Every structure is written in C-alpha cells, then in structure tokens.
Amino acid sequence: MQIYLPELSQKQGKAVDFRFEEDLLSSFSEFLDGGTFKLVMSASLNDDQLVVNGSLEVSTTATCSRCLESFNQCFTTDFTELFTVLKNAPVESNRQIEALETANTLNVSGDYLYLDEYIRQLIILGQEYNPICALDCRGLCAGCGEDLNKSTCRCCSEKENIDLRFIKLKELNQE
Ligand SMILES: [Zn+2]
Ligand SMILES: [Zn+2]
Questions:
Q1: CB neighbours (10 Å) of residue 9?
Q2: Residue pLDDT, tens place only, 87-113
Q3: 134 C-alpha to ligand 1 centroid (Å)
Q4: In the chain, domain spans
Q5: Could you write out the DSSP letters of every residue in 52-84?
Q6: How far is the CA of 142 from the centre of ligand 1 (A)?
Q7: Model's pTM, two decimal places?
Q8: Could you tell me the distance, in angstroms and rounded to a whole number, from the CA of residue 123 to the centre of ligand 1?
Q9: Cα-to-centroid distance, 155 and ligand 2 (Å)
Q10: Which is more confident, 32 or 106?
Q11: Ligand lying nearest the CA atom of residue 66
Q12: Closest listed ligand to the CA of 151
C-alpha cells in the first residue's frame, strides 16, 4: 500500500481517495489464519502536512476463547493520522524500513507514503484480546471439557437437576 506524494502535492491540499483490498496473509506474513482487509481512505497534502483518514475493514479467522472453535471475526476501525513529510531527508531505499519508520514516527521521507506497517498495527490493535464466537457462547464444561454449544454433558444435567429442586424449594417457601 503506497501513495505517491508528488501526485498529491499537485492537487494542492485537495483530498484524493484511495482504496486497497487485499489478502491478509499476502500483505502480512504473520496472519497465518488468513482473511482479507479493505482500506478506504482519503489523503491530502498541504505543504509538509499529510492528512490521511479512512476506515479499515478486516475479516479474519479467530479462535473463540470460550469454546476454542474457529470463527469468522470482522471489525472496522476508523482512523485519522497526520504525517509530516521530511524534505531533503535521506531517502531510504528499503521499503520495509521506511514503512516501519513512517508508522512509528509519523514522518515520511522520499516520494512514497508506505502504509503497510501502519495498517499492520491498526489490525493488531483492532483485534479482540479474548474473542468469542457469539455473545451467548456456552463454552466448554469446566468438568469434562464438552463443548456446551453442541451438547449438554452429564455434569451439567446433574447441575440442572439440583437447580430445579432448588427452585421447587423456593416456591414452597413462598407459599
Ligand atoms: Zn465459542
Ligand atoms: Zn461436563
């Protein structure tokens, strides 16, 4: 993902739209579970101030922290960032180093803004720390490890019986 700055500077501060739609794994080798992302944004350059804003939509595979099943996780992150274009800065020939520096210092040198590292960090921050497949995921039984979304195990039905008797007792007390 790169933006050619001389083109932006010709527009004299007018916003230009960009759209990138890519495969997660082919852009970032660490997302082994695969998935895709879509980046819709606009950028404008005023003198040495480069303003970028847009939204990042990510669809990836995650492992539920309750039942340990894989499921499709989607999230959207909006962002606005101000980068400073360094003039007469020594131009790094390595795109990866440049992308890393851009993301960490928000400084851009050379003719291109390389967004790879910045987007990688947005994806990591946007991911749930303890993802769950559904709000009502019942998880695994602490007693026998059975996936309670798929079936009830013996320990659970025993517990339900106790609960039922307890409710009966309560009813008796109220009468
Ligand atoms: Zn789950
Ligand atoms: Zn159980």
A1: 17
A2: 876 665 688 888 888 888 888 888 899
A3: 6
A4: 2-126, 138-175
A5: EEEEEEEEEEEE-TTT--EEEEEEEEEEEEEEE
A6: 14
A7: 0.75
A8: 22
A9: 4
A10: 106
A11: 1
A12: 2
